[in-house]
Amino acid sequence: MLLRNFQRIRTRAQQQAVSLSQRFLFLLRTELGVTLGLAVVVGLLAGLGAVGFRYLIMEFERLFFDGGASALGFMGPYYLIIIPAVGGLFVGLITHFFAREVKGHGVPEVMVAVAAKGGRIRSRVAVAKTLASSICIGSGGSVGREGPIVQIGSSLGSTIGQWLKLPEDWINTLIACGAAGGIAATFNAPMGGVFFAHEVILRRVITPSFIPVVISSVLAL
């Protein structure tokens, strides 16, 4: 009797496991499943981008100030005046020859891309913004990390959407995912990233994009 009951319980458990796996596979094939999967990818990439951005800032700071102190030691403390100018020169060259979009703060450029360009942001923007901003901050420029990391994360999301030839609404959602992930990873504020993406980038709370943005923001930490 006990053996029969055990077999029945095991059979039901197996059936439930099969049912759950079938539901999971079905979810992956739906629009929601694809969106959630892309949100995971964008969130992870935005988190890695934030880590790489922070690492480059520290490396350029060491290069400019430790190396600059050695090379310009004959100037005494006045070498500190030269270093930001040198950093600004490199930033200007990157901006002029590689990607003009990175010359601004970062957030307004993303807002324009969402509102007027169908979410299209060139893939090179992420690389150019990372280099230009890390050089600027590392050389003592008067800028912060918020604008650059928003543009970097948004560029990653837009690039993935364009590669997959997704509709405009999907691309805008991925842009919001990248922005939220960048803010969350940089400032350790996942909910701040979520509300920033909806209120500033998308300019409204959109129900279909809310869950993917939350997932990206949390995974980017």
Layout of secondary structure:
Blueprint (H helix, E strand, L loop, with lengths): L1 H28 L1 H41 L7 H19 L9 H10 L7 H15 L7 H18 L4 H20 L2 H12 L5 H13 L2
Helix pairs in contact: 1-2, 2-3, 2-5, 2-6, 2-7, 2-9, 3-5, 5-6, 6-7, 7-8, 7-9, 8-9
Can you tag this structure with a few keywords?
221 residues, Clc chloride channel, mainly alpha
Q: What's the total helix number?
A: 9
Report the mean per-residue pLDDT as an integer: 84
Rough outline: elongated
Distance between the termini: 52 Å
User: What structural category arises from helix and sheet content?
Assistant: mainly alpha
Helix content: over 70%
Largest sheet: none
The portion of residues forming beta strands comes to under 5%
CATH homology superfamily name: Clc chloride channel
Low-confidence stretches: 13-18
SSE string, helix = H, strand = E? HHHHHHHHH
The whole-angstrom Rg is 23 Å
Number of domains as seen in the coordinates: 1
CATH topology (fold) name:
Clc chloride channel
CATH architecture: Orthogonal Bundle
Count of distinct strands? 0
CATH class: Mainly Alpha
What does this structure look like?
With 221 residues, the protein is mostly helical. The chain has a single domain, classed as Clc chloride channel (Orthogonal Bundle), CATH 1.10.3080. Helix content is 80%, strand content 0%. It is built from nine helices and no strands. The longest helix has 41 residues, at 31-71.
